[in-house]
Amino acid sequence: MKTAILSDIHGHAVALETVLRELDRQDIDQLIVLGDLAYRGPEPKRCIELTRLSAHTVIGGNADEWAVRGVRAGEVPDHVLLRMNEERSFTVSHVDEEDIAYLASLSMSANCDLGHGQTLYACHATPSDRFQVILPDTTDEELAALYLREQSIMPSVATYGHIHIPYIRSLKGAVILNPGSVGLPFDGTPKASYAVIETSANTLNASIHRVTYDLRLACDALERLDYPHRERLVQSIEQAVMP
Q: Residue range 213-241: average pLDDT?
């Protein structure tokens, strides 16, 4: 069985469409999306629509929560709060009430079947917090406490998004995996990122995939749709750094 995992699309439909075309060629059995579908990109509605059409399981992220209710003081540095809420206003103005209701309905986590008796636990950041930052160099002990010990049955794979940095680690007989970001990678490689897990009767293989997409087309969409403070996102797209 082959499972694809995407996260952190952030309204960047050019990147998402490129990834979905690649997945169509890979005979994927199920698609799991770890949240942050719409906010902070030029085409939020298109990304919601594509996700709803393509994904079997969708988790809600912190940016989905922001799209629903706005960015609050204390959640981001004070000097970017106004700017981020202006970006949130753009998102809301380009979706409808049904889209917002869908984002509000997304769950914190999910348990998924990988086939052949193997399971996956999925969340956006941590099981209880959509905003907590867990970096790739987090200790084994903390990773196990967050993603393995809280589960009634230890999963074969635990996966989360949020940090926009892909990695895979083996831990206590399980795999900890972050697929990185489709729309806004922060690891210095300006390519969309996703993960694939393939299982058989006796094996589980996890891999990170990077996809080249039309960066100029993505940046042009920000200009064409008059995205607020777009120069920061253009830099983020072109250099794969945090905006």
A: 96
In which order are the strands placed within the sheet that holds 204-211? 57-58, 30-33, 2-6, 192-199, 204-211
pLDDT of the residue at 39: 98
Q: Contact, 122 vs 61, CB < 8 A?
A: no
Question: For residue 149, what pLDDT is reported?
Answer: 78
Q: Give me the pLDDT at residue 152, please.
A: 67
d(CA 5, CA 101): 23
What percent of the chain lies above the pLDDT cut of 90? 96
Judge whether residue 153 has pLDDT over 80: no
Superfamily of domain 2-238: Metallo-dependent phosphatases (3.60.21.10)
Summarised one tens digit per residue, pLDDT across range 62-100 is: 999 999 999 999 999 999 999 999 999 999 999 999 999
Kindly list the domain boundaries of the chain, sorted by start residue: 2-238
pLDDT at 202: 86
